[in-house]
Amino acid sequence: MGSLWEKIANISPYVIIPEVEFAIKITGIDIVILSEEKVHFIQLKTLKGTLTGSQVPRSRNELSIQDNPLFAVAFNLGQWTFNDSIIPRIAGQEFWSKISIDYDIVENNVKDMLQKIEKAFVQLAAS
Questions:
Q1: Cα distance between residue 44 and residue 46, in whole Å
Q2: Domains annotated on the chain, with CATH
Q3: How confident is the model at residue 3 (pLDDT cuts 50, 70, 90)?
């Protein structure tokens, strides 16, 4: 689902997806944003607990080589598995407001989407 959040975030005029815009892959970086007069290099996940323990060091290494790194999650749910004293992290509304997208609109539409998917799977299972 990570690429879905990237595509939604890309609606913002403050977001660049390097692979889409420039056909380049920056290892460990999903999006780049301009916020508070700084360019931030962001690894974007779905939830606070998305990373497993073995993935944390890799994410830390990938982010630490960038100026203004940020670990962000689309939804403020769960417990953080990414902890670092140098690399800031943001979740949910704090992330979406940083790129000027209304969190309530994202959250409500994602809920609707997931309910539709669930209903479709229930119908498939019943048939």
A1: 7
A2: 2-101 (3.40.1560)
A3: confident
